[in-house]
Amino acid sequence: MGLRGSMSPEQLKLFESQGFIVIESFAGAEEIDGMRQRMDELLEGFDCSTASVFSSKNQKQLTDNHFYESAEKISFFFEEKALDDDGNLKQAKQLSINKVGHALHEHDPVFKKFAQSEAISRLLVSLQYKRPVIIQSMYIFKQPGIGGEVVPHQDNSFLYTEPPSCTGLWLALEDANITNGCLWAIPGSHKNGLVRRFIRDDIGVHFDNPSPSYDRADFVPVEVKAGSLVVIHGDLIHQSFENQSPKSRHALSFHVVDTDGYVWSPDNWLKREVDPEPLYVS
């Protein structure tokens, strides 16, 4: 392969200690503008009737084909508060979308280029991935005034391999702060292991255990500038609150798992007809 890792020993030590790390200026202004402009084009062209609502609080509503089929498509999901009592949009679709996922990195050339960039691969080499695949991608909008809360969770719950191998890569496409719904995390919580699994079976999708109670005082805000990448351990407890500000908080999220010596769990919600291509093989 010939790639060398990009993270320094100090960065790796910090990541191992707190379960996340911020890499500033990971993406340049031109890259960010290109991805935001491309998403504007995708939003302009999509049919509102092909979208459904997404909520991290109400996972049972996700048991529909639109959600399941999004694993290998570019699919659109509205915010809960974007619809009135009759199911109609209260405002323009561009201001009503919660996220677009989950295969942007495979089907759109702009997002595919970034996903397959040397910078991403070098980062994963640092984390000792041998045959990494991006198993899902999401463009998250965190809309002004209605951007929904994402409840405390661990990425390994949703994208489980045996043994666990998920890492989240969260790129800020706009400045993210306390006001507009930045990430919050419990430093070191990844050391306590996986709390519960999000399982898909004959009755739909559900968690195998109830959510623990978390003390809000244990969370720290992860405020970042546009272009910063937050690298998130799969067992880290993290969340984000509602965006009640007049400013959006766009972000691009990839989730990576290893496929060399790791087995994708058959009861994950995300099931694919075609296996994803690895970013590299070492």
TrEMBL record:
It holds the Pfam family PhyH. Gene3D superfamilies: q2cbj1_9rhob like domain. Keywords: Iron, Metal-binding. Its cofactor is Fe cation. GO terms for molecular function: metal ion binding; phytanoyl-CoA dioxygenase activity. This is Phytanoyl-CoA dioxygenase. The lineage of its organism: Eukaryota, Viridiplantae, Streptophyta, Embryophyta, Tracheophyta.
